[in-house]
Amino acid sequence: MEVNKMTQPVRFGIVGMGWRAEAYLRVAGQLPHLFEIVGIAVRDPAKYKDAAAKWGIRLYSTPEELAKHCDFVLTAVSKASAPAVLQQLASLGVPVLAETPPAADEEGFKRIAELAEAGAPIQVAEQYPLQPHHAARAAVIRSGRIGDVRHVQVSAAHGYHGISLIRHYLSEKAGAECEIAARRFELPILEVPYRGRAVQDKLETELQDIAILSFSNGKSALLDFTRSQYFSPLRQNRLLIRGSHGEIRDNEVTSSISGSGGPGGYETWSIRRLQDGQEGSLAPLSLRELRGGAERLYRNPYYPAPFSDDEIAMAETLSRMADYAKQDTRFYSLQEALMDIRLSMAIDRAAATGQSVRVSPAL
């Protein structure tokens, strides 16, 4: 979405008040020309008076009252509460942006599947494919430089987030059966600074999931992740995307060069980050773009806002939701989210039983 095409801010409200809701408040607050926050609906407004004063927002006691004043509503509630809240909002007919995951167990899955079948106006805020480096890698794939991509290895996000990246890179539209083998391991690690908590120099235990996904159309993937990768500098992300004419390894691209140097010619280049506010720069600390040589692979549409990559992706989900509310332009449907959740739950079953699990494309 080109943000300069928006003539007035889109009005949205949030159901729920927690750390994720506050993250959206921070993002929207930096972009008042794009987004206007109507307020937040909570069960007990008295409990959140201090938070409301901090953010300068109005509290509503019911989602129904909030929805009357919004172009769309964002849900930021617990996994257990999400299905019921989404059903409630779907009955109002207001467009809804659901925070991930919209369901976390079999019962919730069935309730959300019913909403998808009924065509409820719901999109899901799956931000990982929208993060700048993931978007830049996808641009390389679309360019055809590395040919037909049939295998990826993702160690950058857990569960359904990791699977969304896998399907994104493989252009897998949930049309193929998938067989999953998985294992779960316990590993020691120095205490992780989880969401700002104070840490000491002591060991704790973390879980590492490794899963192999084999699709019936011949595509395959490996998902490898441990939650400390989100917070600890001791655990780094890794990505490998293999195509018929090259591959992407993290931010390094190797691709064939047709007609240059004869058969077997190739080139290697890096995806580079151009960011202001570093060293002698007096500009704001903000990402400008990502480049591969002289080619722009990604441009930050929210420059010069001082956003992290995850916040850029969150702003993009809000912008795409604005398009959806106005023009029904879908970007990550309930059907897609349900497929990612289904594959994620299958990984959990495979890891728990030690046996392969087969998942059909039909929901």
UniProtKB/TrEMBL annotation:
Q: Which domain of life is it from?
A: Bacteria
Q: Which part of the chain is the Gfo/Idh/MocA-like oxidoreductase N-terminal domain?
A: 10-117
Q: Name one GO molecular function term.
A: nucleotide binding
Q: Which PANTHER family match?
A: BILIVERDIN REDUCTASE A (PTHR43377), BINDING ROSSMANN FOLD OXIDOREDUCTASE, PUTATIVE (AFU_ORTHOLOGUE AFUA_4G00560)-RELATED (PTHR43377:SF2)
State the protein's name.
Gfo/Idh/MocA family oxidoreductase
